[in-house]
Every structure is written in C-alpha cells, then in structure tokens.
Known about the structure:
With 211 residues, the chain is an alpha+beta fold. It has a single domain (2-159), classed as BirA Bifunctional Protein, domain 2, CATH 3.30.930.10. It contains 4 helices and 12 strands. The protein has helices at residues 12-21, 74-88, 144-153, 161-171; strands spanning 2-6, 29-33, 54-61, 94-96, 100-103, 106-116, 119-126, 179-182, 185-188, 193-194, 200-202, 205-207. The strands form 3 sheets. A 7-stranded mixed sheet has the order 1-2-3-7-6-5-4, sandwiched between helices. The chain has a 3-stranded antiparallel sheet with strand order 10-11-12, with no helix packed on it. A two-stranded antiparallel ribbon has the order 8-9. Strand 8 and strand 9 (185-188) form a beta hairpin. The two termini are 23 Å apart.
Amino acid sequence: MDIHWFESLESTQSYLLEELKASRLHPPVCVGALSQTLGKGSRGNSWLGMKGNLFISLAIPRAILPDDLKLESSSIYFAFLMKELLSSLGSKVWLKWPNDFYLGNAKIGGVITNLIGDTLVCGIGMNLVSAPEYFEKIDITIDAYDLTEAYSELFKNLPSWKLIFSNYQIEFENSREFFTHNNNEKVALENAVLLEDGSLECDGQRIFSLR
C-alpha cells in the first residue's frame, strides 16, 4: 500500500476523498499527516491534535478484504487490527465498541469508516504524544509514520472476520460499563448482546457499528 505523508493537512480524510474523486490516487492507498487542523471524528465531531499524533486515512477496495467481512463489521475490523498491532508492541490499549481506542477509562483515539462506491475509506486518529483535556495518550513510544507503515503492512495478509470477531468477543466485555450512541441517544452497553456481524442488540434495538 502506498503511503502519502504530509507535514500538515486540514483533514487526511477530506484530502484522500478529493484525490480519489479526481483519480489522482487509487486504492489501496494511505494518506497521513504529522498534524491536521480540521479532522473529522465520530458523529460529526472534530478530531484535532498536536504534531506527532496519528492522523491517517486509508482507501481499501472491498475486493481485497476477507470474503466473510460484512460492511457493517468494517469499523470493528479495521480498529481491532490496529489494536492488535499496538498490543504486540506492548500497549494496554483496548477497543470500546465499536470504534474507540481506550486506555483504562480514557479515550485515546478512534476510527471512522465510510463506503465510497466499492472502496472503504477508513480514518484513524490517535493520541501518540499529547492529548487534550479529558483524553489520554498511548502508553508506548511509537512514531506516527512507523505505526502507519506497520499498519499498512497488515493489508498484505488480512485475517478473516471470523478470527477478528472471536478475539473481539472477549474484549467486548470491557465495554459493558460504557454507553454508545444510536440516533444521537445514549444507549448503555451493560446488557447488550454482541451479534456475529459486530452489531448489538440493546433493549430490542439493533445497533450497527459502521460509522
């Protein structure tokens, strides 16, 4: 996967989408920056950060993804790939359903995924060197570009959704003391049932993980 790296961008995801639309970049491809000024987070929130944190967006053709990976499972899939990579480097990071990276009770980053035609565009932001108030930074020392390079290497031999899900089922138990959002409403995860496609059943509602 080609990596296009910048000193600063307004948003790696906006830049990537513009370049894909203009056919100047072609998936699989990754865009990263040492800093960004108008980054996008979940539910329309901004994701800003100081220089040295992780700001990347990837375009991945559905054709190279595992056959058993459904669209609604993709946010968990991409996020858990990153979580497993960080764990292998010694971090105690865990994945709160469906797309937030946590250390203990503090958020350190997240993933957003959108489908554009037959391409999944995945944005990942993470506090590597600094964090705003009420957030935390990761518990290992890792360079943003080195992490991006290691993550992009994973796409050469992707595991099945079945394997990712079997590992995530155990980790999901950490999410039970938290809540998620569904149609801008808070939903407690205490009694949620994690279904095989990564969605949740909560109080009779089906909540999907794609964001």
